[in-house]
Amino acid sequence: MTQTAEGTASSSGDTVGMAHMVRPGEVDISHGAILYVEGVTVSFDGFKALNKLSLAIDAGELRCIIGPNGAGKTTMMDVITGKTQPDAGTVFFGQTIDLLKMSEPEIAHAGIGRKFQKPTVFESHTVFENLELAMKMDKGVWSSLRYRISAEQRDRIAETLEHIQLESRAGIAAGLLSHGQKQWLEIGMLLMQDPKLLMLDEPVAGMTDAETERTAELFLSLAGRHSLIVVEHDMDFVSSIARKVTVLHEGRVLAEGPMDVIQNDERVIEVYLGR
Ligand SMILES: Nc1ncnc2c1ncn2[C@@H]1O[C@H](COP(=O)(O)OP(=O)(O)OP(=O)(O)O)[C@@H](O)[C@H]1O
Ligand SMILES: [Mg+2]
Question: Distance (Å, rounded) from C-alpha 241 to C-alpha 235?
Fold first, then answer.
């Protein structure tokens, strides 16, 4: 049985009416937040990679997470996506969906997409086919085999191609794309599943300056419709997209706020930016 992203009307009686009703498959964002991480601790042989980590992400927000190597950024993503089970704490998707009770595929199905650092596209398939496959995989293997795409779905692929600026590459094998283009294709593949929350770990690593700039534009265009969590060490890139920035250090939040405040925070300069 697959656990669904089914939500219920949130607490406080029914006087509020329909505004708080959440349909099956939707995430209850009636309190404004799409993700709550609270008091999360992850230990590896006694070493605390996350140490009572707490943060919340608003619906539609583009949040940048920075911090030194080993701060726990990737481990945090592992917990949210169900790859690592924490020793303590809670992680909720909206008001009602307890992510710690779900498996990795269930979490992906509920609407959390993750992009790893290394692009994993099907190299021998065309760019178009990669997007098509990403859409079909959502339907499950068995229906994929029998499944033909409709005109509407074709339009969605075209729309995504435009979004990731690969229209002119639609017919070529993905293996022939540049590193940056492969990264965009993989983001496009995630978008075909229409995730509510997208998590990207070091998305511009290895990109050219021009590719990095286009990636910034892409992320800014995705915010609002999707919520994004972006982990990056490239501070020029972070500055170009940042709204609210969270600094992790030794498994917990060291500082949080607008980029200009973070850049002038003595503690952040000492542990990270000043190096
Ligand atoms: N599976 C594991 N087993 C043991 N230790 C681990 C494991 N995964 C992560 N760690 C340790 O936990 C700490 C946090 O690692 P994590 O990868 O989350 O850091 P990060 O902030 O993503 O760093 P970077 O910026 O280098 O990617 C590190 O000290 C790392 O060595
Ligand atoms: Mg990492």
Answer: 10
Is the pTM higher than 0.85? The answer reads: yes
- Among the atoms of ligand 1, which is closest to the Cα of residue 67? 21
3-class secondary structure, 271:
helix
107-134 pLDDT per residue, tens: 999 999 998 777 789 999 999 999 999 8
Full set of structural domains in the chain with CATH:
31-118+195-273 (3.40.50.300)
Q: How far is the CA of 258 from the centre of ligand 2 (A)?
A: 22
**pLDDT tens, residue by residue, 130-142:** 999 988 765 555 5
- Three-class HEC string of 147-194: CCCCHHHHHHHHHHHHHCCCHHHCCCEHHHCCHHHHHHHHHHHHHCCC
User: Maximum Cα–Cα distance for the chain, whole Å?
Assistant: 59
